[in-house]
Amino acid sequence: MDLPKExxxxxxxxxxxxxxxxxxxxxEPGFEEVRTQRRAREILTNFAKVPExxxxxxxxxxxxxDIKGTGPPRQSSDxxxxxxxxxxxxxxxxxxxxxxxxxxxxxxx
Length: 109
Description:
By secondary structure, the protein is mainly alpha-helical. Helices cover 31% and strands 7% of the residues. The protein has three helices and two strands. It has helices at 5-8, 10-25, 34-47; strands spanning 55-58, 62-65. The protein has a two-stranded antiparallel sheet with strand order 1-2. It is globular and about 55 Å long. 3% of the residues are buried.
């Protein structure tokens, strides 16, 4: 499988790691992920170039995102167009950070 050249660039992976650390620094319990939802929406629209019209809110702080491919639809043997569904959780547990040395330590105590 050939990866797009953008994914082979170290800048891409540094950005992904930075986002993960940012979410870690600002944990939010379930159904309170207002900041996390806002940040995810910014990444989708600004970085991934997903049009705002393809992003919907669900379950208070969740997002449903329709990401459309640029190539022709691929059909399976039963003549149905294939799609992939992904699900992720970004909520956190309410707890005290145990590792004080982390530069991306939780700021929500």
